[in-house]
Write a structure and sequence with these properties.
- The complex is a heterodimer of chains A (about 200) and B (about 45).
- Chain A is α/β, with parallel strands linked by helices and about 200 residues long.
- Chain A has nine helices and five strands, in the order H-H-H-H-E-H-E-H-E-E-H-E-H-H.
- Chain A has one domain: Vaccinia Virus protein VP39 (Rossmann fold, 3-Layer(aba) Sandwich), CATH 3.40.50.150.
- Chain A has a five-stranded parallel beta sheet with strand order 3-2-1-4-5.
- In chain A, strand 4, helix 7 and strand 5 form a beta-alpha-beta unit.
- In chain A, helix 1 packs across helix 6.
- The longest helix of chain B is centred in the middle third of the chain and has 6 residues.
- Chain B is α+β, with helices and mostly antiparallel strands and about 45 residues long.
- Chain B has one domain.
- A two-stranded antiparallel ribbon of chain B has the order 1-2.
- Chains A and B meet through helix 7 and strand 5 of A and helix 1 and strand 2 of B.
Chain lengths: ~200, ~45
Amino acid sequence: MAGDLPVDPDVLREQVRDKYREVAVDPGGGFHFHTGRDLARRLGYEAGTVDALPDRAVESFAGVGNPFSLRRLAPGEKVVDVGSGGGFDSFVAAGQVGTVGQVIGIDMTAEMLAKARQTAAALGLGHVEFREGLAEALPVEDGWADVVISNGVINLCADKRAVFAEIRRVLRPGGRLQFADIANGRPVPVEAMRDIDLWTG
Amino acid sequence: MLQDSGFTDVVTGEAVDTFGGAKGEANARAFDVYGYAFMATRPAG
């Protein structure tokens, strides 16, 4: 295990990959979290935006908040979506930045990447691209992004400082990080922090 | 942690009951877990 991290990052990553493989392949499978259109409604996404997307673009959405709620993206912005999953937030971002902007979604789960790429192709979104990679090692050049978005992903990474350092690297100076994630109002006991099953379930 | 990582102008949105009605609700309630939107800036220069 690396340094003072509560769990082994590699073991956690494999467990997360297994869980989100299920969400990609069987999105109605019944998870400990909500998914799909009902979740998007619960989190306050604009109904018109969600309704305009096909089921395939929304059904594997498993975010925990709305990264667009504090600021709408501007036309022409270049966006990186860390942990893009089935692509829902990338597609919302693509609509906001328009075809003069660009969106790169990054995910580590092959099934999610395949689903997102097929949906992007079906929607004819030439300004959206999905790349395989890790939040701790984003396959994006230094300073490329105007905005980095993420939704419910950083809490699943053992080394959060490494993730934030990597996000900072790919953002241009003056660029923004807009993300959604969970936070606990009561302290989690050390033994629970070390229980890797609790991280994903 | 955001500020320690070199971000400024950190803004936190309202809490959202992310897990309400889901199978994970009991665990979420046990630790007062909610979803939040965050925004922060990489300083220019």
